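[INFO] parsing input record for Iron dicitrate transport regulator FecR
[DEBUG] input buffer:
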Amino acid sequence: MSERPLQSIIDEAAHWMMRLQSGEIQAEELRAFERWQAGDPRHAQVFQRMAGRLDVVRQPALAQLSERQVIQALNSPSSRRRFIQGSLAVVGAVGVSALGVRLAASGFAWPGELYTGVGERRTLRLEDGSRLTLDARSRVTPQPRGLRLQQGSLLLEASAGDTPFLLQSRAGRAEAQPGRLLLSARENGPVRLTALDGRVRLAGGQWLLPGQTARFAADGSFVVAAASGSESAWLDGRLEVDDRPLGEVIDSLRAYRHGVLRVSPEAAALRTSGLYPLDDSERALQLLARTLPIRIRRYSGLWISIERA
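[DEBUG] output buffer:
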């Protein structure tokens, strides 16, 4: 196969990936997507590689762009091919695994960041001796005596040191004393910080004590309450919720599933309680469908839509 046809297929696959992830695709477009996949075996092969087996972007030129700018570049008909051709390596007839990005696995991760892919939990040791466990699809930027959580969830066992361990997220800064804590900042959910057996100093000098959890609003304000005990269930591959919006549950399941998992605003607002297996997202979806008035539609192996029945 010549170079030009492969570039064209990659261009088309990038277009469909962005349309599917936008959440705005209509039924006729979905049928067109299915026809495109069926039209050539290479179409589905390239699309699935891009959706599920993409590695981390490490191109210097891309490091100057924000994630939003990269997505816009991919979604622009006029620049999509130039972006892909100029920034990503294509090797072999259908060598899409050499594209060098991990778009669907963990978002964009730059050199120096620690990350996990879809369905992956990982434990490692930081330079100061602290122990860090990352949930699936999580990214952190380590610092000499601290870290910044870019997305996902983590368990930190902060070691003793001359200074507190500095935690940063989109909710702001916190200073942890030696001990274990949980921090979560999923894309569509609130930021939550839970002290398990150590203290954490929050903004304004308030202390988060062992057994307490803080839920942060978008403006950085927070509410402290007693921890439920279920915050660490993800370490054992479980999601335990008590009267939480379905949208938050789906956000957690996305970290354990390739492709697009879309939920309508009406369905996302439904409240649910239960125990769901993270390592078997298909089973989790079945359990949700049995207990909630929702309709799950499957348009392809990589695209699922959840609507209120």
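[INFO] Residues 66 and 220 are 23 Å apart (CA to CA).
[INFO] shutting down worker
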